[in-house]
Amino acid sequence: MPRYDVVIVGAGVIGCACAYYLARAGVRVAVLDRNQVNSGASGRNAGSLHFQLEYRLIQNQDLLDRQLPFLLPLTLAGIEQWRSLPEELGVDIGLKMTGGLMVAETPKQIALLRKKSEIETRCGLNVEWLSGDEARQLQPGLSQSVQAALFCPDEGHCNPRLLTPAYARQAEAAGAKFLEPCEVVDLARTGGKWLVRCRLVNGGAEETIQAESVVNASGAWASELALKANLHLPLFPVALMMSVTEAAPKVLKYLVQHVGRKLSLKQVSDGNILVGGGWSAKLQTSAKQGAGKPEIRLDNLQKNLAAACDVLPAVRDLNLIRTWTGITGITLDHLPVIGQFAEAPGFYVAAGGSGFTYGPTYAKLLSEYILTNRQPELLKPYSPDRFSDLNMFMGQ
Amino acid sequence: MNYDVVIVGAGPAGIAAANILVEQSLSVLLIDEQARAGGQIFRQPPKGWTVKNWLSSKIYRDGINELRKAEANSLIRWRFRTTVAGISRVAGAEPAFRVFAEDANGVCEIESRFLLLATGCHDMSVSFPGATLPGVMMAGGIQAFVKSQQIVPGECFVLVGTHPLQIIVADQILKAGGKVAGVYFGQPLSRFLRAFKAPATLFRFSGKFLFFLGCICRVLLAGVGIHFGRTVRRALGKEALEQVELMRLDSQGQPTASATQAVAADRLGLCFSFIASSELARQLGATVRWSAPEGGFLVEHDQWMQSSVPGLFVAGEITAVAGADAAMEEGRLAAFGIIRKKMGAQQCTEFTTQIDAVTRRLQKHEQFSTLLRALSDPEDIPKTLLKDEAIVCKCEQVSVGDIHSMLTDNQFVSTASSLKLLTRAGMGLCQGRYCQHILVRLIAEQRNIPEQQVGPYTAQFPSKPLAVAKILEWSPESQ
Ligand SMILES: Cc1cc2nc3c(=O)[nH]c(=O)nc-3n(C[C@H](O)[C@H](O)[C@H](O)COP(=O)(O)OP(=O)(O)OC[C@H]3O[C@@H](n4cnc5c(N)ncnc54)[C@H](O)[C@@H]3O)c2cc1C
Ligand SMILES: Cc1cc2nc3c(=O)[nH]c(=O)nc-3n(C[C@H](O)[C@H](O)[C@H](O)COP(=O)(O)OP(=O)(O)OC[C@H]3O[C@@H](n4cnc5c(N)ncnc54)[C@H](O)[C@@H]3O)c2cc1C
What we know:
The complex is a heterodimer. Chain A is an alpha/beta fold. Helices cover 30% and strands 27% of the residues of chain A. Chain A has helices at residues 13-24, 55-59, 61-89, 107-123, 132-138, 160-173, 222-228, 298-311, 359-372, and strands at 3-9, 29-32, 48-49, 100-104, 128-131, 148-152, 156-157, 177-178, 182-190, 193-200, 206-216, 235-247, 255-258, 264-267, 272-276, 319-331, 337-340, 347-351. In chain A, helix 1 (13-24) packs across helix 9. Chain B folds into 3 domains: 2-122 and 275-343, 3-Layer(bba) Sandwich (FAD/NAD(P)-binding domain), CATH 3.50.50; 125-272, FAD/NAD(P)-binding domain (3-Layer(bba) Sandwich), CATH 3.50.50; 386-454, Arc Repressor Mutant, subunit A (Orthogonal Bundle), CATH 1.10.10. Chain B is built from 16 helices and 22 strands. The relative contact order of chain B is 0.14.
């Protein structure tokens, strides 16, 4: 029976980054996925690095109060990590941290943006208030409807096509083993060890792997995997859409987001403009088993494109070349779940949240946790313990 | 708008199906992005134009009759110059499909109970150094100009490939007043002579055979050389094609050491084989199987031409490239399949003799297409042409060398979709239509796994680029 120190389930950004940080520290790691590396949300997302406070945090005072003490250190850790990533990974990952704008078009949105700017300034985040004209001066091409914007110089984007494979290559170079595509069918803990039963996708042969610890990095499907270890994890899949236009002359220097509408805009180095922002696709019921591509909702696509054209009119003259979908996981409080389950020693999870922006940070912190067996301070608010009521009759 | 059946593709398969479906009082809409019906083979001149001797050979007679019958049938609804960008399923309820289509005026949604995809095939693109020079074309592209409008798109043509179609194209170029510097087959002449080992098939299809011999004679009489065991090595030219460099191949399709030869030409037509246009079916999640000689990833179907997606029928080249006659029979079979599904098997006994006849003719045509494939399969030649500097994905300028090194550096990648994500190959305007089959073969070879396991690119919406402005102007019924 193959034996590893850590088996990581899921080869998205979190799984591959974890593999890298652990393997680099000398841990024997295996990564397994039922699909290809980077085929989940990590390779399908918008690639926005958003460090400004998110909409839901501004709206929910209670959540905000609980979060604020942790948010700034986490954000700063994230920004610092991103700045050093291209060098650390040794390849071009399409990272652009030239700044991000969050725009407002109506008085109500301006008020919301004001409130946000106040909170952010209070907690020490680097944001700058811009009038509509100032915003247009900074980012020509923005529409006249933009009346104000917040600028955060640390924001930007990274290419989701490149980040996770770069981590995977470095992890492999550091000794991590990427197994043939296989699906975890069962998880059990006996004699202080984890037994991971998996089935090869091609051929169907089954094999059991032994590990000291298991990392559940299976993204939107993390609750399914947790259940295999007899644990409840209230994380729900949501299907989102992303669109890309044909290559256009360079117009966008910054990441553009909207405070009152679902919108994210950026231009990649090849000239294509990426349009996203969290418009939903229709989840297929079979998505629970990881199959079944979500169905594009054309009405939502239209709304997404309308928001894009309202903010950046140049988009109207372009051709859409592709719309795709991805599935990501959210929790009830919208916070990620990161840490070890009290009910199942050695079973770790990192899922949910803005997993691209913070994926490298979540992974690094979780690796630290596994290596030292001590929960890092920054992970405290995200522990799966907050769902322990659900697991009173569960566990290993 | 709501139909019993929407048919995408007004080629032989689509029109043959429509003719039967409307007879049984089903409402039918035929959609095609071309300006007129006929598909790839019966590409018609624009309305109001006359082209002398347009497809006058007897071998086209049945198909053209079918075409005229459909055009004269007022029960069939048509939408030309309309591209189907995407299709979605309506779960549970009738109608079962929603077709999202684009024309010059904008986009619209059409609902239909059943869907028949008869989207045909396109030329197989091959990559070699210089293949992206202006002047290098697909034989089908040349044919599109010549056949329907008698426009000769160039001065002097060289044709290279493995498919006998290139003789027909040469003949058509000559008839339209163009010049052909040579026709080059990659396979040895002996491959073609194998046809005589199947004299019964030749006899049964003597009409086609004689037509083809006629083309050969006219091409030879015009002083055009037909060569075997030779193929393109490089396309040369400063701004555009000036010369075609040819190399000799042995009987296995491998380059030999003998000297290359350069032929002056401003147009190179490539005619290796065909690739099934299965992307709309794949968008809907239909199961496909890989078969290189039959056209890459082909849509699987049952005996009634229904795909793995209930209600989605397929016919023609997207199920296996087999020519116009087989496409028509498959269209008919699909029509009966739809009727059967709509009315129930018991109600369909009256069609038994018709269906039997269709099945018999289909089997007969399959003999021919099997023979043709055996003669014309490019086998490994497309791979032989690949040099590291050759461009695989023309849209995104990804080279063979890029693909090789990406596969070497990323051992965990073994599907076409994940290599696409890593390299951008297949992410351009053509949605990977042209590079998919090469990339799939490259992965299969380097990883030593079957092409079926490599799989196709995930087919995404829209199937062809779609103006953002048109999407904005659309008023969805669901709103
Ligand atoms: C359209 C879209 C846009 C987004 N935009 C942004 C953005 O701009 N910024 C941002 O910060 N975040 C964004 N996100 C969120 C972000 O993409 C995710 O949070 C992040 O990628 C999650 O990474 P992951 O490694 O946890 O999951 P994934 O990348 O989904 O990886 C999980 C992997 O686990 C595998 N797996 C699951 N179950 C099993 C099993 N039982 N056995 C074997 N393998 C299994 C899956 O096959 C998959 O490969 C977006 C998400 C989507 C869908
Ligand atoms: C260049 C070329 C030359 C050929 N020459 C011959 C020949 O000489 N003899 C022979 O027997 N066979 C020939 N063939 C094979 C030919 O494909 C078949 O004979 C026949 O045309 C197949 O019929 P079909 O109905 O399957 O598809 P097609 O005739 O190809 O019809 C498919 C139709 O679907 C339409 N379509 C596809 N996608 C969309 C979309 N998304 N939206 C709207 N419309 C769409 C296309 O415009 C096309 O009109 C040739 C093929 C090619 C590519």
